[in-house]
Specification:
single chain, mainly beta, four-stranded antiparallel sheet, elongated
């Protein structure tokens, strides 16, 4: 016989373990890797196993764009790579959406994470219409 649940987590405040942002920071110009979203994780909770990250981006590919790559990084464009979609074939003027997930076992309280977009062979700016970056401290 299965044992009934004996405890409830209802009175526990877990809000300090979650962070997210859905603000578009920028859209990539030409073929440069560009930060399109960012989130700062709380510095109020311990990280035992890592930081679970969720990133999603919707964008219209700029002129001459042939492939796009979404990346999750620590701190900024030059920061440590956490995850990447790899180059995904795209066509100029097409609306695209991709998401990716990762666990960063090197995350520290207060760290900034970014989601970046790079459009290969882009001869004009691509336009980001939606971004989401979420973090859960585990």
């Amino acid at each position: 016989m299965t044992q009934p649940i004996q405890f409830s987590a209802a009175p526990i405040d877990l809000s300090g373990r979650f962070a997210y942002s859905d603000t578009v920071v920028a859209s990539p110009a030409l073929a440069a890797e560009t930060v399109v979203g960012q989130v700062v994780i709380p510095d109020t909770a311990a990280i035992v196993s890592g930081v679970w990250l969720t990133g999603a981006v919707a964008w219209t590919v700029g002129t001459s764009g042939t492939a796009s790559t979404i990346r999750l990084r620590e701190t900024g464009v030059a920061g440590t790579l956490v995850a990447s979609t790899g180059a995904v074939t795209t066509a100029a003027a097409s609306l695209r959406y991709h998401s990716l997930y990762a666990v960063d076992s090197a995350g520290t309280p207060g760290m900034t994470y970014v989601v970046t977009l790079q459009v290969a062979n882009g001869a004009a700016a691509s336009t980001v219409s939606y971004v989401f970056l979420g973090a859960i401290l585990v």
